[in-house]
Fold Acyl-CoA dehydrogenase.
Amino acid sequence: MDFEFDPRDDAFRQEVRAFVRDNLPADIARRGLTNYHTDKADTRAWTAILHGRGWSAPSWPVQFGGTGWTLMQQFIFDQECFAAGAPLLETGGLKMIGPVIYTFGSKEQHERFNVPFLRGEISWGQGFSEPNAGSDLAGLTTAAVRDGDHYVVNGRKLWTSGAQWANWLFCLVKTDPKERQRGISMILIKADAPGVTIRPIIDLGEGHHLNEMFFDNVRVPAENLVGEEGKGWTYAKFLLENERAFSAEVPRNKRNLALLRRIAADRKYRGRPFAEDPAFAARIEQLQSDLDSLEWMTLRALTAKSSGDLSLPVGSILKVRGTELQQKIGEMQVEALGEYGAIVYPHDQHVNGADDALGPDYAPGVLADFLYRRAVTIYGGSNEIQRTILAKQYLGL
Ligand SMILES: Cc1cc2nc3c(=O)[nH]c(=O)nc-3n(C[C@H](O)[C@H](O)[C@H](O)COP(=O)(O)OP(=O)(O)OC[C@H]3O[C@@H](n4cnc5c(N)ncnc54)[C@H](O)[C@@H]3O)c2cc1C
């Protein structure tokens, strides 16, 4: 296998870097380089800018409005954008429901949802998990009962990221309560439809990212069903594999490791910088080596996938390694920050002005991000579940 970057990929990297340098607004980049959640307005504005260049769907085929880029080009694009502080494009629409719609949905749904999404006009929420259905997702009970031209939806969803900004929700519902997986369908629900209530859940870092949602006799037009009734489980598996492959987050890990090096060079322990403490320095180099192998593993997976080799459960491997690395880097950032690592600066206070933060400019956001990233080994299917998938599919246990 050849791991050299093709000269065309290097030229592509330069092209992306120049575009980002010339077009990413400075205030968006400033907010993006903190470790807080991206403001939805920034994500939409950046999506619209990329759309002007035809780049707002790096992973989609050309016929659906995407770039048609190779997996390697997408990887390079993500790295360049993230390193410069560009907001991550919205995963819900780009990696999850968008591809489900153009693969399994109707042409009308593609025109109605995907096309405006690519212009930065629509935000999505993912309504899968419920109070008693997380790892055991097939046990969900939110019901959709057909009534003429509509489905009537009743139930409760939990942990919905970003629902407060969403215009639309892609939800898994039970259309046949007698069946488990075969009774599940996927439906698109307007976030402000009568009967939908969205309540905030405030997290450890004092941020509002999560929500619970209640559906009380919500009438949803039958045309909002995606694909066929009873096939929602198949579509969900397709979507979750995309979500997991994304969660290796090599660009985020790279940026966070660079920040850790900066903190370690700057902050002192017993009179000398952390970076000069042999034990601390050795731990950083161990993380660097873990990151290098994660990057190579990602490149290997991309190479295999490009050549049609789908034998490895790649999404699960990348998710486990990438998320554990995120947590380890965050732990060391907080440790090296010392007393400044003990203060939570809530997102709104810091990012939107009223900034009376103590300490160095890189301190705010580190603890909030560290606390939020406790969740990365849980969402998208917990790492315990991913290990079970690997044991079964890869090791044949
Ligand atoms: C920050 C965050 C954002 C999220 N965003 C969304 C979202 O936008 N939309 C959405 O639908 N959901 C979202 N989720 C929900 C997420 O998908 C679930 O939390 C996850 O699937 C785990 O489900 P659970 O919380 O019900 O835990 P449970 O399934 O109850 O699991 C609890 C613990 O038991 C372990 N466990 C469970 N079953 C097994 C098993 N068979 N073998 C070994 N161990 C097992 C799990 O690994 C976990 O450690 C989000 C969660 C978080 C924390």
User: Anything to note?
Assistant: Residues 7-89 form one domain. The chain is about 45% helix and 15% strand.
